[in-house]
DNA sequence: TGAATATACTTGTTATAACATGTTGTTACA
DNA sequence: TGTAACAACATGTTATAACAAGTATATTCA
Protein backbone atom coordinates (compact mmCIF):
# COMPACT_ATOMS: atom_id res chain seq x y z
CA UNK A 1 0.00 0.00 0.00
CA UNK A 2 1.56 3.25 -1.11
CA UNK A 3 1.68 6.03 1.43
CA UNK A 4 -0.10 9.12 0.14
CA UNK A 5 2.14 12.16 0.19
CA UNK A 6 0.85 15.40 1.68
CA UNK A 7 -0.84 17.85 -0.66
CA UNK A 8 1.87 20.48 -0.48
CA UNK A 9 4.35 17.75 -1.30
CA UNK A 10 2.29 16.72 -4.31
CA UNK A 11 2.09 20.30 -5.51
CA UNK A 12 5.81 20.69 -5.03
CA UNK A 13 6.58 17.51 -6.93
CA UNK A 14 4.26 18.47 -9.76
CA UNK A 15 5.90 21.87 -10.17
CA UNK A 16 9.36 20.43 -9.69
CA UNK A 17 8.71 17.94 -12.43
CA UNK A 18 7.50 20.61 -14.80
CA UNK A 19 10.56 22.71 -14.08
CA UNK A 20 13.07 19.91 -14.52
CA UNK A 21 11.31 18.67 -17.64
CA UNK A 22 11.79 22.10 -19.14
CA UNK A 23 8.14 23.04 -19.42
CA UNK A 24 9.17 26.35 -17.93
CA UNK A 25 12.03 28.40 -19.28
CA UNK A 26 14.58 29.67 -16.75
CA UNK A 27 13.31 33.04 -15.55
CA UNK A 28 9.77 32.26 -16.63
CA UNK A 29 6.99 33.20 -14.27
CA UNK A 30 4.95 30.50 -12.60
CA UNK A 31 1.17 30.87 -12.40
CA UNK A 32 0.05 33.07 -9.52
CA UNK A 33 -0.72 31.49 -6.16
CA UNK A 34 -4.41 32.06 -6.83
CA UNK A 35 -4.25 30.14 -10.10
CA UNK A 36 -2.30 27.31 -8.52
CA UNK A 37 -4.93 27.11 -5.77
CA UNK A 38 -7.69 26.76 -8.34
CA UNK A 39 -5.74 24.31 -10.46
CA UNK A 40 -4.73 21.98 -7.64
CA UNK A 41 -7.93 22.59 -5.67
CA UNK A 42 -6.03 23.41 -2.51
CA UNK A 43 -5.79 26.37 -0.20
CA UNK A 44 -3.25 29.12 -0.46
CA UNK A 45 -1.48 27.83 2.63
CA UNK A 46 -0.71 24.61 0.80
CA UNK A 47 0.47 26.31 -2.37
CA UNK A 48 2.69 28.65 -0.39
CA UNK A 49 4.14 25.73 1.56
CA UNK A 50 5.07 24.05 -1.71
CA UNK A 51 6.53 27.24 -3.17
CA UNK A 52 8.47 27.85 0.01
CA UNK A 53 10.09 24.45 -0.28
CA UNK A 54 10.89 24.97 -3.94
CA UNK A 55 12.47 28.30 -3.04
CA UNK A 56 14.50 26.72 -0.25
CA UNK A 57 15.79 24.15 -2.69
CA UNK A 58 16.74 26.88 -5.10
CA UNK A 59 14.43 25.93 -7.95
CA UNK A 60 12.46 29.17 -7.88
CA UNK A 61 12.77 32.65 -6.47
CA UNK A 62 9.95 34.97 -5.52
CA UNK A 63 9.33 38.70 -5.68
CA UNK A 64 6.61 40.29 -3.63
CA UNK A 65 3.95 41.85 -5.79
CA UNK A 66 5.25 40.16 -8.91
CA UNK A 67 5.37 36.40 -8.77
CA UNK A 68 7.48 33.28 -8.56
CA UNK A 69 10.10 32.59 -11.20
CA UNK A 70 12.10 29.57 -12.23
CA UNK A 71 15.74 29.95 -11.27
CA UNK A 72 18.03 30.38 -14.24
CA UNK A 73 20.89 28.55 -12.61
CA UNK A 74 20.90 24.84 -12.47
CA UNK A 75 22.71 25.04 -9.18
CA UNK A 76 21.18 22.84 -6.58
CA UNK A 77 21.28 25.61 -3.98
CA UNK A 78 22.97 24.22 -0.95
CA UNK A 79 23.01 20.68 -2.21
CA UNK A 80 26.44 19.41 -2.90
CA UNK A 81 26.96 16.58 -5.30
CA UNK A 82 30.36 15.12 -5.09
CA UNK A 83 29.21 11.68 -4.19
CA UNK A 84 29.68 9.86 -7.40
CA UNK A 85 32.61 9.87 -9.77
CA UNK A 86 30.54 8.64 -12.70
CA UNK A 87 28.06 11.44 -12.20
CA UNK A 88 30.83 14.01 -12.07
CA UNK A 89 32.28 12.70 -15.31
CA UNK A 90 28.93 12.65 -17.03
CA UNK A 91 28.39 16.30 -16.17
CA UNK A 92 31.81 17.14 -17.49
CA UNK A 93 30.93 15.40 -20.73
CA UNK A 94 33.43 12.63 -20.21
CA UNK A 95 32.90 8.92 -20.25
CA UNK A 96 33.53 7.40 -16.87
CA UNK A 97 35.27 4.10 -16.31
CA UNK A 98 37.57 2.51 -13.80
CA UNK A 99 40.57 0.26 -13.95
CA UNK A 100 40.48 -2.17 -11.07
CA UNK A 101 43.97 -2.53 -9.67
CA UNK A 102 43.19 -4.71 -6.73
CA UNK A 103 40.29 -6.01 -4.63
CA UNK A 104 41.50 -7.87 -1.58
CA UNK A 105 41.08 -8.56 2.10
CA UNK A 106 43.79 -6.83 4.11
CA UNK A 107 44.99 -6.78 7.71
CA UNK A 108 43.53 -4.09 9.94
CA UNK A 109 44.94 -0.59 9.57
CA UNK A 110 44.84 1.26 12.86
CA UNK A 111 43.96 4.64 11.37
CA UNK A 112 41.29 3.25 9.04
CA UNK A 113 39.68 0.96 11.60
CA UNK A 114 39.32 3.90 13.94
CA UNK A 115 37.70 6.04 11.28
CA UNK A 116 35.34 3.24 10.32
CA UNK A 117 34.47 2.69 13.98
CA UNK A 118 35.18 -1.03 13.92
CA UNK A 119 37.21 -3.32 16.16
CA UNK A 120 40.97 -2.80 15.85
CA UNK A 121 41.51 -6.44 14.92
CA UNK A 122 38.91 -6.59 12.18
CA UNK A 123 40.21 -7.17 8.69
CA UNK A 124 39.25 -4.81 5.88
CA UNK A 125 38.28 -5.05 2.26
CA UNK A 126 40.46 -2.79 0.15
CA UNK A 127 39.75 -1.62 -3.38
CA UNK A 128 42.37 0.14 -5.46
CA UNK A 129 41.21 1.74 -8.66
CA UNK A 130 42.31 4.17 -11.32
CA UNK A 131 39.41 6.38 -12.34
CA UNK A 132 39.28 7.32 -15.99
CA UNK A 133 37.53 10.08 -17.86
CA UNK A 134 37.18 9.19 -21.54
CA UNK A 135 40.12 6.85 -21.15
CA UNK A 136 42.48 9.30 -19.48
CA UNK A 137 43.51 8.71 -15.86
CA UNK A 138 41.90 11.36 -13.69
CA UNK A 139 42.30 9.97 -10.22
CA UNK A 140 43.59 7.10 -8.19
CA UNK A 141 41.70 5.95 -5.16
CA UNK A 142 41.85 3.40 -2.41
CA UNK A 143 38.67 2.43 -0.58
CA UNK A 144 38.40 0.49 2.65
CA UNK A 145 35.19 -1.18 3.76
CA UNK A 146 34.24 -3.26 6.77
CA UNK A 147 33.96 -6.95 5.69
CA UNK A 148 30.16 -6.86 5.94
CA UNK A 149 29.83 -4.20 3.28
CA UNK A 150 32.99 -5.16 1.45
CA UNK A 151 31.83 -8.65 0.54
CA UNK A 152 29.02 -7.13 -1.47
CA UNK A 153 31.59 -5.97 -3.99
CA UNK A 154 33.19 -9.29 -4.88
CA UNK A 155 30.59 -10.26 -7.44
CA UNK A 156 30.28 -6.81 -8.96
CA UNK A 157 31.89 -5.27 -11.99
CA UNK A 158 33.91 -2.46 -10.48
CA UNK A 159 35.16 -1.21 -13.84
CA UNK A 160 31.78 0.17 -14.85
CA UNK A 161 29.93 0.55 -11.55
CA UNK A 162 30.78 2.88 -8.71
CA UNK A 163 30.88 1.60 -5.15
CA UNK A 164 28.39 4.25 -4.21
CA UNK A 165 25.98 2.93 -6.80
CA UNK A 166 26.31 -0.69 -5.81
CA UNK A 167 25.83 0.10 -2.14
CA UNK A 168 22.94 2.48 -2.51
CA UNK A 169 20.98 1.25 -5.50
CA UNK A 170 21.58 -2.48 -5.61
CA UNK A 171 21.66 -3.18 -1.90
CA UNK A 172 19.47 -0.24 -0.96
CA UNK A 173 21.75 0.95 1.80
CA UNK A 174 21.14 4.70 1.82
CA UNK A 175 24.11 7.03 2.12
CA UNK A 176 22.78 9.69 4.45
CA UNK A 177 25.87 11.58 5.39
CA UNK A 178 29.51 11.97 4.65
CA UNK A 179 32.54 13.92 5.70
CA UNK A 180 35.19 15.11 3.30
CA UNK A 181 38.65 16.42 3.76
CA UNK A 182 40.50 18.21 1.02
CA UNK A 183 44.24 18.50 1.20
CA UNK A 184 47.36 18.24 -0.93
CA UNK A 185 49.93 15.48 -1.10
CA UNK A 186 52.98 14.46 -3.04
CA UNK A 187 52.34 11.52 -5.34
CA UNK A 188 54.34 8.46 -4.34
CA UNK A 189 55.82 6.08 -6.87
CA UNK A 190 52.71 3.93 -6.98
CA UNK A 191 50.21 6.74 -7.48
CA UNK A 192 52.34 8.71 -9.92
CA UNK A 193 52.73 5.63 -12.09
CA UNK A 194 48.99 5.15 -12.39
CA UNK A 195 48.27 8.83 -12.98
CA UNK A 196 51.17 9.17 -15.41
CA UNK A 197 52.82 11.78 -13.26
CA UNK A 198 56.34 12.08 -11.90
CA UNK A 199 57.06 10.98 -8.39
CA UNK A 200 56.64 13.89 -5.97
CA UNK A 201 54.19 15.80 -8.15
CA UNK A 202 51.48 17.49 -6.11
CA UNK A 203 48.07 15.81 -6.17
CA UNK A 204 44.74 16.87 -4.72
CA UNK A 205 43.80 14.44 -1.99
CA UNK A 206 40.19 13.89 -0.97
CA UNK A 207 39.53 11.73 2.07
CA UNK A 208 35.95 10.85 2.61
CA UNK A 209 33.91 8.69 4.88
CA UNK A 210 30.34 7.82 3.91
CA UNK A 211 27.73 6.89 6.44
CA UNK A 212 24.35 5.22 6.34
CA UNK A 213 21.42 5.23 8.76
CA UNK A 214 22.46 5.58 12.38
CA UNK A 215 25.76 7.15 11.32
CA UNK A 216 27.16 3.70 10.58
CA UNK A 217 30.31 4.01 8.51
CA UNK A 218 30.07 2.27 5.15
CA UNK A 219 33.44 3.04 3.66
CA UNK A 220 36.48 5.26 3.88
CA UNK A 221 38.24 6.41 0.77
CA UNK A 222 41.37 8.27 -0.14
CA UNK A 223 41.30 9.68 -3.63
CA UNK A 224 44.16 11.42 -5.41
CA UNK A 225 43.26 13.70 -8.30
CA UNK A 226 45.65 14.85 -10.93
CA UNK A 227 45.37 18.61 -10.30
CA UNK A 228 45.87 19.50 -13.93
CA UNK A 229 42.64 17.67 -14.67
CA UNK A 230 40.61 18.40 -11.56
CA UNK A 231 40.15 21.26 -9.16
CA UNK A 232 37.31 22.19 -6.89
CA UNK A 233 35.42 25.35 -7.69
CA UNK A 234 33.15 27.27 -5.41
CA UNK A 235 30.82 30.14 -6.09
CA UNK A 236 29.65 32.31 -3.24
CA UNK A 237 27.21 35.12 -3.77
CA UNK A 238 24.79 37.21 -1.88
CA UNK A 239 21.72 37.66 -4.04
CA UNK A 240 20.38 40.70 -2.26
CA UNK A 241 19.53 41.50 1.31
CA UNK A 242 20.22 38.35 3.34
CA UNK A 243 20.80 40.69 6.26
CA UNK A 244 23.35 43.22 7.26
CA UNK A 245 26.99 42.85 6.32
CA UNK A 246 28.84 39.62 5.72
CA UNK A 247 29.18 38.78 9.39
CA UNK A 248 27.90 35.33 8.61
CA UNK A 249 29.75 34.67 5.41
CA UNK A 250 28.25 34.25 2.00
CA UNK A 251 25.74 31.66 0.86
CA UNK A 252 27.26 28.91 -1.18
CA UNK A 253 25.84 28.85 -4.67
CA UNK A 254 27.89 26.13 -6.18
CA UNK A 255 30.55 23.71 -5.15
CA UNK A 256 31.75 21.19 -7.62
CA UNK A 257 34.79 19.58 -9.10
CA UNK A 258 35.84 21.14 -12.36
CA UNK A 259 37.50 19.07 -15.03
CA UNK A 260 39.97 20.24 -17.60
CA UNK A 261 40.56 18.03 -20.59
CA UNK B 1 12.27 56.18 11.35
CA UNK B 2 13.06 52.55 12.05
CA UNK B 3 11.15 49.99 10.04
CA UNK B 4 9.30 47.56 12.29
CA UNK B 5 10.22 43.97 11.49
CA UNK B 6 7.46 41.41 11.01
CA UNK B 7 6.36 39.44 14.02
CA UNK B 8 7.75 36.14 12.84
CA UNK B 9 11.04 37.90 12.26
CA UNK B 10 10.98 39.29 15.78
CA UNK B 11 10.25 35.86 17.20
CA UNK B 12 13.04 34.40 15.12
CA UNK B 13 15.52 37.03 16.23
CA UNK B 14 14.53 36.61 19.85
CA UNK B 15 15.05 32.86 19.74
CA UNK B 16 18.20 33.23 17.65
CA UNK B 17 19.64 35.57 20.21
CA UNK B 18 18.86 33.20 23.05
CA UNK B 19 20.47 30.34 21.18
CA UNK B 20 23.65 32.20 20.25
CA UNK B 21 23.94 33.67 23.73
CA UNK B 22 23.96 30.15 25.06
CA UNK B 23 20.74 30.35 27.05
CA UNK B 24 19.92 27.01 25.49
CA UNK B 25 22.29 24.09 25.55
CA UNK B 26 22.90 22.30 22.23
CA UNK B 27 20.28 19.59 21.99
CA UNK B 28 18.03 21.31 24.48
CA UNK B 29 14.33 21.44 23.69
CA UNK B 30 12.72 24.76 22.95
CA UNK B 31 9.35 25.58 24.50
CA UNK B 32 6.44 24.06 22.60
CA UNK B 33 4.76 26.04 19.86
CA UNK B 34 1.80 26.58 22.14
CA UNK B 35 3.98 28.08 24.84
CA UNK B 36 5.77 30.31 22.36
CA UNK B 37 2.39 31.51 21.08
CA UNK B 38 1.35 32.48 24.60
CA UNK B 39 4.69 34.04 25.42
CA UNK B 40 4.97 36.18 22.31
CA UNK B 41 1.22 36.74 22.03
CA UNK B 42 1.14 35.63 18.42
CA UNK B 43 -0.62 32.91 16.47
CA UNK B 44 0.80 29.50 15.75
CA UNK B 45 1.29 30.43 12.10
CA UNK B 46 3.73 33.11 13.16
CA UNK B 47 5.62 30.90 15.57
CA UNK B 48 5.88 28.15 12.98
CA UNK B 49 7.10 30.63 10.38
CA UNK B 50 9.87 31.70 12.74
CA UNK B 51 10.79 28.11 13.63
CA UNK B 52 10.81 27.18 9.96
CA UNK B 53 13.34 29.90 9.24
CA UNK B 54 15.49 28.89 12.17
CA UNK B 55 15.40 25.32 10.91
CA UNK B 56 16.33 26.41 7.39
CA UNK B 57 19.28 28.28 8.81
CA UNK B 58 20.34 25.21 10.70
CA UNK B 59 19.98 26.59 14.21
CA UNK B 60 17.30 24.12 15.26
CA UNK B 61 15.87 20.82 14.13
CA UNK B 62 12.37 19.56 14.73
CA UNK B 63 10.78 16.19 15.41
CA UNK B 64 7.10 15.66 14.92
CA UNK B 65 5.36 14.84 18.14
CA UNK B 66 8.38 15.78 20.22
CA UNK B 67 9.54 19.33 19.77
CA UNK B 68 12.18 21.66 18.42
CA UNK B 69 15.76 21.32 19.55
CA UNK B 70 18.83 23.50 19.35
CA UNK B 71 21.36 22.14 16.89
CA UNK B 72 24.54 20.95 18.49
CA UNK B 73 26.67 22.12 15.62
CA UNK B 74 27.62 25.71 15.26
CA UNK B 75 27.54 25.30 11.53
CA UNK B 76 26.11 28.21 9.63
CA UNK B 77 23.99 25.98 7.43
CA UNK B 78 24.72 26.87 3.84
CA UNK B 79 26.71 29.94 4.71
CA UNK B 80 30.34 29.56 3.98
CA UNK B 81 32.90 31.65 5.74
CA UNK B 82 36.27 31.44 4.21
CA UNK B 83 36.55 35.08 3.51
CA UNK B 84 38.87 36.20 6.20
CA UNK B 85 42.09 34.67 7.37
CA UNK B 86 41.97 36.44 10.72
CA UNK B 87 38.49 35.11 11.36
CA UNK B 88 39.57 31.58 10.50
CA UNK B 89 42.48 31.82 12.89
CA UNK B 90 40.35 33.22 15.67
CA UNK B 91 37.97 30.30 15.38
CA UNK B 92 40.87 27.89 15.49
CA UNK B 93 42.04 29.56 18.67
CA UNK B 94 45.17 30.93 17.07
CA UNK B 95 46.43 34.47 16.96
CA UNK B 96 46.46 35.83 13.46
CA UNK B 97 49.18 38.00 12.04
CA UNK B 98 50.91 38.59 8.76
CA UNK B 99 54.45 39.22 7.66
CA UNK B 100 54.46 41.66 4.79
CA UNK B 101 56.99 40.52 2.22
CA UNK B 102 56.30 43.07 -0.43
CA UNK B 103 53.78 45.70 -1.48
CA UNK B 104 54.52 47.09 -4.92
CA UNK B 105 53.21 48.20 -8.27
CA UNK B 106 53.95 45.62 -10.94
CA UNK B 107 53.65 45.32 -14.70
CA UNK B 108 50.45 43.83 -16.07
CA UNK B 109 50.15 40.05 -15.88
CA UNK B 110 48.10 38.75 -18.76
CA UNK B 111 46.36 36.01 -16.76
CA UNK B 112 45.60 38.24 -13.78
CA UNK B 113 44.43 41.23 -15.80
CA UNK B 114 41.99 38.99 -17.59
CA UNK B 115 40.62 37.59 -14.38
CA UNK B 116 40.28 41.08 -12.90
CA UNK B 117 38.55 42.27 -16.05
CA UNK B 118 40.82 45.24 -16.57
CA UNK B 119 42.77 46.54 -19.57
CA UNK B 120 45.71 44.33 -20.53
CA UNK B 121 48.15 47.24 -20.19
CA UNK B 122 47.02 48.31 -16.73
CA UNK B 123 49.59 47.95 -13.98
CA UNK B 124 48.70 46.06 -10.82
CA UNK B 125 49.27 46.37 -7.11
CA UNK B 126 50.78 43.20 -5.72
CA UNK B 127 50.91 42.18 -2.07
CA UNK B 128 52.99 39.26 -0.91
CA UNK B 129 52.43 38.08 2.62
CA UNK B 130 53.18 35.19 4.92
CA UNK B 131 50.15 34.46 7.10
CA UNK B 132 50.91 33.36 10.61
CA UNK B 133 48.87 31.54 13.23
CA UNK B 134 50.28 32.17 16.69
CA UNK B 135 53.62 32.94 15.10
CA UNK B 136 53.85 29.84 12.92
CA UNK B 137 53.70 30.22 9.14
CA UNK B 138 50.41 28.80 7.91
CA UNK B 139 50.14 30.15 4.42
CA UNK B 140 51.79 32.30 1.81
CA UNK B 141 49.70 34.42 -0.45
CA UNK B 142 50.00 36.85 -3.29
CA UNK B 143 47.21 39.32 -3.96
CA UNK B 144 46.74 41.45 -7.04
CA UNK B 145 44.45 44.48 -7.11
CA UNK B 146 43.57 47.04 -9.76
CA UNK B 147 45.38 50.32 -8.98
CA UNK B 148 42.13 51.95 -7.86
CA UNK B 149 41.60 49.54 -5.04
CA UNK B 150 45.27 48.80 -4.53
CA UNK B 151 46.22 52.34 -3.59
CA UNK B 152 43.90 52.09 -0.58
CA UNK B 153 46.39 49.66 0.97
CA UNK B 154 49.52 51.83 0.94
CA UNK B 155 48.71 53.64 4.16
CA UNK B 156 47.43 50.58 5.98
CA UNK B 157 49.12 48.22 8.38
CA UNK B 158 49.00 44.95 6.51
CA UNK B 159 50.62 42.99 9.31
CA UNK B 160 47.59 43.19 11.55
CA UNK B 161 44.74 43.97 9.17
CA UNK B 162 43.38 41.76 6.42
CA UNK B 163 42.78 43.18 2.96
CA UNK B 164 39.22 42.00 3.19
CA UNK B 165 38.75 44.03 6.34
CA UNK B 166 40.30 47.20 4.98
CA UNK B 167 38.25 47.05 1.81
CA UNK B 168 34.93 46.19 3.36
CA UNK B 169 34.93 47.89 6.73
CA UNK B 170 37.16 50.93 6.31
CA UNK B 171 36.23 51.85 2.76
CA UNK B 172 32.77 50.31 2.91
CA UNK B 173 33.14 48.46 -0.37
CA UNK B 174 30.93 45.41 0.17
CA UNK B 175 32.22 42.02 -0.96
CA UNK B 176 29.09 40.48 -2.43
CA UNK B 177 30.44 37.49 -4.24
CA UNK B 178 33.52 35.43 -4.77
CA UNK B 179 34.76 32.45 -6.66
CA UNK B 180 37.23 29.99 -5.25
CA UNK B 181 39.31 27.31 -6.78
CA UNK B 182 41.00 24.64 -4.70
CA UNK B 183 43.87 22.71 -6.17
CA UNK B 184 47.27 21.35 -5.29
CA UNK B 185 50.71 22.61 -6.29
CA UNK B 186 54.36 21.97 -5.64
CA UNK B 187 55.97 24.66 -3.52
CA UNK B 188 58.64 26.56 -5.41
CA UNK B 189 61.82 27.77 -3.80
CA UNK B 190 60.28 31.08 -2.78
CA UNK B 191 57.16 29.67 -1.20
CA UNK B 192 58.85 26.75 0.49
CA UNK B 193 61.33 29.10 2.11
CA UNK B 194 58.58 31.20 3.66
CA UNK B 195 56.55 28.21 4.79
CA UNK B 196 59.59 26.38 6.10
CA UNK B 197 59.03 23.50 3.72
CA UNK B 198 61.25 21.76 1.24
CA UNK B 199 61.15 22.73 -2.39
CA UNK B 200 58.64 20.55 -4.24
CA UNK B 201 56.51 19.77 -1.19
CA UNK B 202 52.81 19.68 -1.98
CA UNK B 203 50.81 22.71 -0.87
CA UNK B 204 47.10 23.40 -0.96
CA UNK B 205 46.46 26.22 -3.40
CA UNK B 206 43.39 28.44 -3.13
CA UNK B 207 42.77 30.92 -5.93
CA UNK B 208 40.03 33.36 -5.25
CA UNK B 209 38.54 36.40 -6.83
CA UNK B 210 36.35 38.68 -4.75
CA UNK B 211 33.74 40.91 -6.28
CA UNK B 212 31.76 43.92 -5.15
CA UNK B 213 28.50 45.43 -6.38
CA UNK B 214 27.93 44.98 -10.08
CA UNK B 215 30.30 42.02 -10.14
CA UNK B 216 33.25 44.36 -10.22
CA UNK B 217 36.43 42.48 -9.37
CA UNK B 218 38.22 43.85 -6.31
CA UNK B 219 41.15 41.52 -6.03
CA UNK B 220 42.57 38.20 -7.11
CA UNK B 221 44.58 36.11 -4.73
CA UNK B 222 46.64 32.96 -4.81
CA UNK B 223 47.15 31.43 -1.41
CA UNK B 224 49.33 28.44 -0.60
CA UNK B 225 48.57 26.59 2.60
CA UNK B 226 50.92 24.25 4.34
CA UNK B 227 48.76 21.11 4.16
CA UNK B 228 50.05 19.77 7.46
CA UNK B 229 48.50 22.79 9.12
CA UNK B 230 45.40 23.34 6.98
CA UNK B 231 42.89 21.21 5.17
CA UNK B 232 39.34 21.88 4.14
CA UNK B 233 36.64 19.85 5.80
CA UNK B 234 33.11 19.36 4.62
CA UNK B 235 30.15 17.77 6.34
CA UNK B 236 27.20 16.63 4.28
CA UNK B 237 24.14 15.19 5.88
CA UNK B 238 20.53 14.56 5.14
CA UNK B 239 18.54 15.30 8.26
CA UNK B 240 15.55 13.21 7.31
CA UNK B 241 13.30 12.96 4.33
CA UNK B 242 14.32 15.71 1.91
CA UNK B 243 12.78 13.49 -0.74
CA UNK B 244 13.52 10.18 -2.34
CA UNK B 245 17.07 8.92 -2.72
CA UNK B 246 20.17 11.05 -3.08
CA UNK B 247 19.58 11.91 -6.70
CA UNK B 248 20.22 15.51 -5.79
CA UNK B 249 23.22 15.12 -3.57
CA UNK B 250 23.37 15.93 0.08
CA UNK B 251 22.86 19.24 1.81
CA UNK B 252 26.03 20.89 2.93
CA UNK B 253 26.14 21.27 6.67
CA UNK B 254 29.60 22.64 7.11
CA UNK B 255 32.50 23.72 5.01
CA UNK B 256 35.49 25.19 6.67
CA UNK B 257 39.23 25.13 6.83
CA UNK B 258 40.53 22.98 9.64
CA UNK B 259 43.77 23.84 11.36
CA UNK B 260 46.15 21.44 12.98
CA UNK B 261 48.70 22.86 15.37
C1' DT C 1 6.20 -7.19 36.80
C1' DG C 2 5.32 -6.69 31.93
C1' DA C 3 2.74 -5.63 28.13
C1' DA C 4 -1.16 -3.50 26.03
C1' DT C 5 -4.00 0.50 26.06
C1' DA C 6 -5.59 4.98 26.74
C1' DT C 7 -4.57 9.71 27.14
C1' DA C 8 -2.36 13.96 26.87
C1' DC C 9 0.85 16.57 24.41
C1' DT C 10 3.53 17.91 20.40
C1' DT C 11 4.37 18.91 15.72
C1' DG C 12 2.39 18.48 10.81
C1' DT C 13 -1.29 19.56 7.45
C1' DT C 14 -4.89 22.23 5.59
C1' DA C 15 -8.78 25.56 5.04
C1' DT C 16 -10.73 30.21 5.45
C1' DA C 17 -10.21 34.94 5.99
C1' DA C 18 -8.58 39.56 6.33
C1' DC C 19 -5.35 42.99 5.78
C1' DA C 20 -0.46 44.76 4.49
C1' DT C 21 2.77 45.70 1.09
C1' DG C 22 4.88 45.82 -3.32
C1' DT C 23 4.27 46.09 -8.61
C1' DT C 24 2.20 47.17 -12.92
C1' DG C 25 -0.65 49.10 -16.07
C1' DT C 26 -4.42 52.35 -16.89
C1' DT C 27 -6.72 56.53 -16.44
C1' DA C 28 -7.31 61.25 -15.58
C1' DC C 29 -5.48 65.65 -15.21
C1' DA C 30 -2.34 69.50 -16.00
C1' DT D 1 2.89 64.60 -23.62
C1' DG D 2 4.17 63.75 -19.07
C1' DT D 3 3.02 62.86 -14.57
C1' DA D 4 0.17 61.74 -10.69
C1' DA D 5 -3.54 59.10 -8.90
C1' DC D 6 -5.87 54.96 -8.95
C1' DA D 7 -7.22 50.25 -9.58
C1' DA D 8 -6.11 45.56 -10.20
C1' DC D 9 -3.26 42.04 -8.99
C1' DA D 10 0.59 39.64 -6.80
C1' DT D 11 2.96 38.08 -2.79
C1' DG D 12 3.69 38.73 2.46
C1' DT D 13 1.78 38.57 7.17
C1' DT D 14 -1.20 37.02 10.64
C1' DA D 15 -5.24 35.00 13.14
C1' DT D 16 -8.49 31.23 13.98
C1' DA D 17 -9.75 26.62 13.61
C1' DA D 18 -9.87 21.74 13.07
C1' DC D 19 -7.95 17.44 12.33
C1' DA D 20 -3.85 14.13 11.38
C1' DA D 21 0.04 11.88 12.99
C1' DG D 22 3.95 10.94 15.93
C1' DT D 23 5.64 10.51 20.84
C1' DA D 24 5.71 9.98 25.70
C1' DT D 25 3.61 8.99 29.87
C1' DA D 26 0.32 7.19 32.85
C1' DT D 27 -2.96 3.58 33.52
C1' DT D 28 -4.95 -0.74 33.32
C1' DC D 29 -5.07 -5.54 33.02
C1' DA D 30 -3.14 -10.16 32.84
UniProtKB/TrEMBL annotation, chains A, B:
<feature type="domain" description="HTH gntR-type">
    <location>
        <begin position="5"/>
        <end position="73"/>
    </location>
</feature>
<dbReference type="Pfam" id="PF07702">
    <property type="entry name" value="UTRA"/>
</dbReference>
<keyword id="KW-0238">DNA-binding</keyword>
<dbReference type="GO" id="GO:0045892">
    <property type="term" value="P:negative regulation of DNA-templated transcription"/>
</dbReference>
<dbReference type="InterPro" id="IPR000524">
    <property type="entry name" value="Tscrpt_reg_HTH_GntR"/>
</dbReference>
<dbReference type="Pfam" id="PF00392">
    <property type="entry name" value="GntR"/>
</dbReference>
<dbReference type="InterPro" id="IPR011663">
    <property type="entry name" value="UTRA"/>
</dbReference>
<dbReference type="GO" id="GO:0003677">
    <property type="term" value="F:DNA binding"/>
</dbReference>
<keyword id="KW-0805">Transcription regulation</keyword>
<keyword id="KW-0804">Transcription</keyword>
<feature type="region of interest" description="Disordered">
    <location>
        <begin position="238"/>
        <end position="261"/>
    </location>
</feature>
<dbReference type="InterPro" id="IPR036388">
    <property type="entry name" value="WH-like_DNA-bd_sf"/>
</dbReference>
<feature type="region of interest" description="Disordered">
    <location>
        <begin position="1"/>
        <end position="27"/>
    </location>
</feature>
<protein>
    <submittedName>
        <fullName>Transcriptional regulator, GntR family</fullName>
    </submittedName>
</protein>
<dbReference type="GO" id="GO:0003700">
    <property type="term" value="F:DNA-binding transcription factor activity"/>
</dbReference>
<dbReference type="InterPro" id="IPR036390">
    <property type="entry name" value="WH_DNA-bd_sf"/>
</dbReference>
<dbReference type="InterPro" id="IPR028978">
    <property type="entry name" value="Chorismate_lyase_/UTRA_dom_sf"/>
</dbReference>
<dbReference type="InterPro" id="IPR050679">
    <property type="entry name" value="Bact_HTH_transcr_reg"/>
</dbReference>
Amino acid sequence: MEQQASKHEQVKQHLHKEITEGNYEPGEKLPSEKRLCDYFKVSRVTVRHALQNLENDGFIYRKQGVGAFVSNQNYKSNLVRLTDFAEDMRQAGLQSSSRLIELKKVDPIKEVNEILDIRPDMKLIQVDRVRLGSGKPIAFDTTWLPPGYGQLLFDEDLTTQTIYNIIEEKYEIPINAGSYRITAANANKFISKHLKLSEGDAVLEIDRCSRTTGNKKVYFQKRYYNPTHVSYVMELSRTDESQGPSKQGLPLKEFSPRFAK
